[in-house]
Design a protein that fits this description.
GO terms for molecular function: kinase activity. InterPro entries: Retrotrans_gag_dom. Keywords: Kinase, Transferase. This is DNA-dependent protein kinase catalytic subunit. The protein is built from eight helices and no strands. The chain is mostly helical. α7 crosses α8. It has two domains: 38 residues, no CATH class; 84 residues, no CATH class.
Amino acid sequence: MTLREPSFDLRTRFGDTVYQWWNTLISVVPRERVTWEFFQFEFRKKYISQRFIDQKRKEFLKLKQGRMSITEYEREFVRLSKYVRECVSSKAIMCKSFKDGLNEKIRLLVGILELKEFVVLFDRACKAKEFCKEK
């Protein structure tokens, strides 16, 4: 599917304003440049302010588990991470950022494992939380 095909229903997803903007833009752009990545770049440039991205960056950098469950923390971490790709540019960096925001007991238990896979780290953090409850 390309972004010029009718199966990509831009009007339904984003409304008339975005639909009209996109049709104007692709009318002057070579066909081979019209990709999903191109759309995302142009959309962000047009509709998402730098102030909004800076705000999300601050939220991400301040994010700690606190009173959230590990699942809630993981959900918020992933949601905010899309605004700070450079802060999660590799699996190892992503894991370190996630681990650093965990509550101390859980962070200490999973920290010694030096995990580099986010899904595995999340799973071990959940298990560490259960272990802490048993003690």
